Amino acid sequence: MSNYYCLMAGVPDVALDDARGALSMAEFKEELEGILTEADKQLMFYLYLRYDCLNLVKMLKNPEAEISPLGNYTRDQYMDMMTSAREMTFNVHRYPKFLSIFAREYSYNKDKAGYFPEDAIMLEYYLYSFKCPNRMLRKWFEMNLNVTNILTALIAKKYGWNVSDYIQGDNMVCDMIRHSNARDFGLSLELDYVGDLMKIVDCDDPVEKEKRIDAFKWMWLDEQTFMDVFSIEAVFAYMCKLEMLERWEKLDLETGRETFRQIIENLRGEARVPEEFKR
């Protein structure tokens, strides 16, 4: 396993209440290019692949659309995906197969009622990422999908909607959500963070709710890398944190800092599982 002591010792510290990271994601990605082993570059590929998914959707809608530089592929390669998919000749060895299949089927699906291409491709992205050979990265991707489904289910239940209509995927968490009538869908005994998510759902301010979700994910990354701060897992976590900070850069700095401090203190001080579910 590679050790990135010099890299991680030299990057600026980032904190949850920073206005933004001292490095941008694009700058850190460029720095990593000449440092990571080929095997570890393949692991970071899974993180950047999210941007490939979003870029592909943008270009399917408008070939001239502005795309993120954070993806693995170039504009010409996205065009190749789209062209080869339409011609039914896509090469599964050039790109992840789900991207080519999505590009091929987009024209048939785009006008269907209730079809949201960004949601559809992100589900395929998570399913693909579950095959990542690194355990911590797999856990990260699975946690993100689980959090999305749990929060969505809690919101649907709160408003009396049919929960099953909004759940994406087919893992244990999805199955429990679809078949349980319990307030926590029976998940508190399986996942130690369900109590935190239930508190997040009760927040009425949508902006603060998003901040709380990111605060939870930030702490998860800290816990996963606490004992191994120079590993590829730590590099991955640092990039994820930069990603969150770039989102938060758009938030009001003064109110945001105090809100994040309070969120972290609350998360650290509160029990993970509500007492009512321990009985």
How would you describe the overall organization of this protein?
The structure is a single chain. The chain has a domain at 36-133. Helix 7 (135-158) crosses helix 9 (194-201), helix 10 runs antiparallel to helix 11 and helix 10 (206-225) packs across helix 12 (253-269). The chain contains 12 helices and no strands. The termini are far apart. The longest helix is centred in the first third of the chain and has 24 residues, at 38-61. The protein has 279 residues and is mostly helical.
Low-confidence stretches: 270-279
- Work out the helix count: 12
Helix % is: 55-70%
- Class of secondary structure makeup: mainly alpha
In sequence order, what are the helices and strands, one letter per element? HHHHHHHHHHHH
Strand content: under 5%
| Average of pLDDT | 87
Biggest beta sheet summary: none
Distance between the termini: 43 Å
Oligomer: single chain
Shape: globular
- Please compute the radius of gyration using only Cα atoms: 20 Å
Number of strands: 0
Brief description of this entry?
The chain is an all-alpha fold and 279 residues long.
